[in-house]
Design goal:
Layout (H helix, E strand, L loop, with lengths): L2 E7 L7 H12 L3 E7 L5 H10 L4 E4 L4 H7 L2 E2 L1 H6 L4 E4 L5 E4 L2 H13 L8 E5 L3 H12 L4 E5 L3 H11 L6 E5 L4 H6 L3 E4 L23 E4 L8 H8 L3 E3 L2 H16 L7 H12 L1
Parallel strand pairs: 1-2, 1-3, 4-6, 7-8, 7-10, 8-9, 10-11, 11-12
Antiparallel strand pairs: 3-5, 5-6
Helix pairs in contact: 1-10, 5-6, 5-10
C-alpha cells in the first residue's frame, strides 16, 4: 500500500523537500509518495486532522506552522519541548499525533560535516537572529561544545529574552548583543550562524561586514536558496570557510524519512548534486 506523507507550509511551492524525499523514495524503491501541501495559517488544524484521517504517515512542517504543530502534538520530543516548535508531525496508529523537532540535530550534523566536529568546541559562536530558527541553532551549537553563544539581534531585548529562556537547557553561556556591537562580537568568534531570513531569495541581503572576523572563523548561513548568499559570498572572498543551509535541510530530513517510510536514508554527493541542480534551475 502506498504510504503518503508531505510538507505543509504557506507558501510551499519553493520547498525542496518533495524533490529530496522523492529522490530517496526512488533510490530505495519504496511505495510511497511525498507531496507539497499549501495550507493557510487559519486552515492548519483542520487540514492536519483531515490528512491524518486520510492515512498520511505524517508531515514535515515549515513556516508559518511550527508553533501550531507544537500545539497540536500530544507527545513531544525534548527538542520540540525546549524550542516550542515542531517541524515533524507523526500520525500514530492509535490516532494520536507525535511532534518532533529535528532542526537542531540537522544543523549540528551539517556543521560537523562541513567544518569538523570541533569547529566551536570550547570557543565562542555568534548567532545572528533571535527567531524560531535561532532556538534550534542554540541547541545545535551547545551540543557541538560551544563555550559561549552570543545572540546578535536587531532587537537587543528579544535576544536577551531568548538567552534567558534557553539558558536552563544548555551548559554553555548565552549572552545577547545588538548589531551595533557586531565588530566586538566578531573579533572573538570561531563560528557565525545566520538564523535570519536575510539573503533568502526575494529578501534583501544581510548588511553585515565580516572584516572583523578572525581568519580562522567559519560562516554558516541557514539560507539555502540561493546556494550562495551575500554572506557566504563575502566570506568566500575573504578566504573564510563558509557554507549555506542545504546540508541542514538534508540532515533534518533523514529522521523524518525514516519515521515515514521505515528506512534510514544515506546522504550522498549525488543527492546533494541533484538538489543543487534544482536550485540552480
Amino acid at each position: 500500500m502506498t504510504v503518503p506523507a508531505g510538507v505543509a507550509g504557506w507558501p510551499i511551492a519553493h520547498s525542496l523537500s518533495p524533490r529530496l524525499h522523492g529522490y530517496w523514495l526512488q533510490e530505495y524503491g519504496i511505495d510511497g509518495v511525498y507531496v507539497p501541501l499549501p495550507i493557510a495559517r487559519e486552515d492548519f488544524s483542520v487540514a492536519v486532522d483531515g490528512l491524518r484521517r486520510a492515512g498520511f504517515a505524517g508531515l514535515n512542517v515549515t513556516v508559518p506552522h511550527k508553533e501550531a504543530a507544537f500545539a497540536m502534538a500530544q507527545t513531544l520530543d525534548e527538542d520540540a519541548r525546549i524550542t516550542g516548535a515542531v517541524n515533524l508531525l507523526l500520525f500514530h496508529r492509535d490516532g494520536t499525533i507525535g511532534g518532533r523537532n529535528t532542526d537542531a540535530m540537522g544543523l549540528a550534523a551539517s556543521v560537523a560535516e562541513e567544518f569538523g566536529p570541533d569547529v566551536t568546541h570550547g570557543k565562542t559562536a555568534v548567532l545572528l537572529g533571535a527567531g524560531g530558527a535561532a532556538r534550534a541553532a542554540i541547541l545545535a551549537l551547545a551540543r557541538l561544545g560551544a563555550a559561549k553563544i552570543r545572540i546578535v539581534n536587531r532587537s537587543h531585548g528579544k535576544g536577551e529574552t531568548l538567552a534567558r529562556q534557553l539558558q536552563p537547557h544548555v551548559s554553555c553561556r548565552l549572552t545577547a548583543a545588538g548589531f551595533e556591537d557586531w565588530p566586538v562580537s566578531a573579533s572573538e568568534t570561531a563560528l557565525v550562524v545566520n538564523a535570519t531570513s536575510a539573503g533568502m531569495k526575494g529578501n534583501p541581503p544581510l548588511d553585515l561586514s565580516l572584516a572583523a572576523l578572525p581568519a580562522t572563523a567559519a560562516v554558516y548561513d541557514l539560507v539555502y536558496n540561493p546556494l550562495e548568499t551575500s554572506l557566504t559570498k563575502q566570506a568566500r572572498e575573504r578566504g573564510l570557510r563558509s557554507v549555506g543551509g542545504l546540508g541542514m535541510l538534508i540532515q533534518q530530513a533523514v529522521p523524518a524519512f525514516a519515521a515515514f517510510y521505515g528506512v534510514t536514508p544515506t546522504v550522498t554527493p549525488q543527492l546533494r548534486a541533484c538538489l543543487q541542480q534544482a536550485l540552480a534551475a
